[in-house]
Amino acid sequence: MARIHGAASASEAVSGNLNFYTMYVTEKVNAVPGVDIDATGDILDQTQQNLDDIVNIISLVAQPIIMNAPVQVSLGGVAPTLTGNGYAFKFAVEHGQVFERGGDNVSILKEIFFGTTIDGVTLEPANVEFVMSDIL
What we know:
By secondary structure, the chain is of the alpha+beta class. It has helices at residues 46-59, 107-113, and strands at residues 19-26, 64-67, 71-74, 85-93, 117-118, 121-122, 128-133.
């Protein structure tokens, strides 16, 4: 086999310009307006569809390059102000301060999520919060 212009290999390089974010969302329980975002891998499962919707909304601004499967947590003491049961979804993007506006490093995330409806629930500050951090 002839080699033209050097060698090629399958690899992935991630730059050092990563920003890490956590999305906290309340769990849907009876009258509590929340969104279940379990990563089931089943595209017919509503909770997987909800997670897919969230990733698609984030991708309107920046492509997440690192993500965890959402973790069910007790939000009190973990999320900035939300309480009760919910999910923590962490992701990273490779665009520095892409979600920042006016000194708020999650302003754009709030703009694109608040008012959006997923699985019949309108996302708002009462059921969704975002935090930027230095680590995933």
